[in-house]
Write a structure and sequence with these properties.
Length: 284
């Protein structure tokens, strides 16, 4: 009888321990303790994914009830972002996937799961596209928890939080795309950037001007051209221009001080989402 009582008592202790050690009961987090290879900071690839029905039901955490949105179309939000890392690495997310702090993912309290979100760090203009597959952060002043990789891409992992703008990238079954509160467009219009020739010919700025520029992209949408040029100009601290040539806006950075600056800028652009960038007005 005594042995049976001891077993029951032990089971009760184990159950209590399990209840008090859930993922949201953890009080601290950290960056990776070690990394074998530098993570790949490539954006998540937005596409149509049906919402998980069981993730659309109301739920309760820490005594507060949350009501998930039935659609993320048109969603825009501004506020503080935080990030989560080592403590949660390898745990299951709210939609049953395994959390990977080196993937471009995020947690949000009410967006449908999964959702794709463009996140802009308002302090430096850097952007990342993440796939929301988890719930959180359950802290009143924060609107989204990014993975460690996403936070590092936005360059705020050392600060803990950053003021950001969220814009859901919503795809429907017919590949119609809505970014934030912008008008719905086709996938081709969303992509926006006209493919550059495999071996582009440098377009002279003027007959007697040999100053160096970097042509980043050719864009058909003037608003997109202005938006991208503003962000890149602020990010790299160089002038930007978007001349209209044959009904296409050529997004250029420059003029640049010398070939060394142009080479460094070109290498950085090609590594960070603009592999087709090339020099205009001179050769490296």
């Amino acid at each position: 009888m005594c042995a049976k009582y001891c077993i029951l008592l032990l089971c009760a202790v184990v159950l209590c321990g399990c209840q008090s050690s859930g993922r949201y009961a953890q009080h601290s987090d950290s960056a990776p303790t070690f990394v074998y290879d530098e993570p790949d900071y490539t954006d998540a690839d937005p596409q149509y994914e049906p919402y998980r029905e069981w993730n659309s039901r109301p739920y309760e955490v820490l005594g507060k009830r949350y009501f998930p949105l039935q659609s993320g179309k048109g969603f825009v939000e501004t506020g503080l972002a935080s990030w989560y890392g080592q403590k949660f690495h390898g745990h299951l997310t709210s939609n049953g996937e395994t959390y990977n702090m080196f993937a471009m993912t995020a947690a949000h309290k009410t967006l449908p799961l999964p959702s794709f979100v463009k996140v802009t760090n308002l302090s430096n203009g850097k952007t990342a596209i993440v796939r929301v597959n988890d719930r959180g952060p359950f802290h009143s002043s924060r609107i989204i928890d990014l993975s460690y990789a996403a936070a590092k891409k936005l360059d705020y992992q050392q600060h803990g939080t950053a003021k950001v703008k969220l814009e859901v990238i919503h795809f429907d079954e017919n590949n119609q795309v809505t970014v934030g509160n912008q008008p719905t467009v086709s996938y081709e219009q969303y992509a926006g950037i006209v493919p550059l020739p495999e071996e582009p010919e440098a377009e002279p700025v003027s007959a007697d001007d040999d100053r160096l520029y970097i042509q980043v992209a050719a864009v058909s949408d003037p608003e997109r051209a202005k938006s991208v040029s503003t962000v890149l100009s602020q990010l790299y601290q160089v002038p930007a221009e978007i001349p209209l040539i044959n009904n296409i806006y050529k997004l250029r950075l420059g003029p640049l001080a010398d070939r060394f600056q142009a080479k460094m800028l070109l290498d950085d652009l090609q590594k960070n989402g603009y592999p087709g960038a090339y020099t205009v007005g001179g050769n490296l």
